[in-house]
Fold Hexosyltransferase.
Amino acid sequence: MACTQLPKRLLRGLPAVALVLGVFVIIVVYMFEVRVVLVTKQYTPVISKQEKHDPPTFENPTLSDDEFASLAKVTQWKSASVIDRLPRHNTTYHQLTHEYAVLTPIGPDDDIFWTKNLYSDFNLFLVCDHDDSRAECDYRLPDNYVYKTLPKKTFDMLQIFCLGSHNYKAIFKLDFDVLLDKRYFLDVLEFMIANHQRRLYYGSALQCADSCEFYMDGPVYGLSRSLLDDYCACDVERPDSVHEDVWVAITLTECLLKSGTFNSENLTLIASNDRGVFHKKFAGKRVKLYIGS
């Protein structure tokens, strides 16, 4: 008798089991989707994968409003448009020497000989900590820094230009552990310099969390003269945050909001090309290079 009743009991219990399993699956899928959304929100490339294009051609490196608009793409953020293709002209580094500056923060364990030789054709300035006594340092900052205090180091570096008499049309922060394609970076320099009257923010543009809409990833980023002037005119306090690249983006955003010029017509992100910037390592034919720790 018990043998004939067991299947009926199982059959009566199947709907409840199916309901429980269904709810479980829905919860798992929902949690997975929420996690994907959160992760995406915190770290989303503005340009996910850049395709190879022939460089756009313009007769004059300084673009008209119409020419500039033809390059700029509207992003999902109302605050900025993006340019991911730059025109190319027959400029040399020597011709641009006095128009820009590249700042490389140097730690006490970083090899200055390597950096000076690698970028000997750049208008490069090595920025050292206070206690770094090496003669090759171009600037010594008022403090010694560790990873957690890099925003303070960036603030102190930018003060060099805000408090000095320099009139560069573009400035860049380039980390010690970055290898640049010099032909590519020359296009970046020429574009930023020729169009320095516009608010241009160069780097690997990423979306971040709620504290800001985007930021330029730390290895290399740059500001046009117009954007640097906005920063220097703003009453910026020495930061206590941890991530210097995010701090720069938040600070620029706040400064532009104060001046009433923060909109997609006045701020343009120049997206770096992932084929022209190599962070920490490079591999080629019979070459394997590792930089930094």
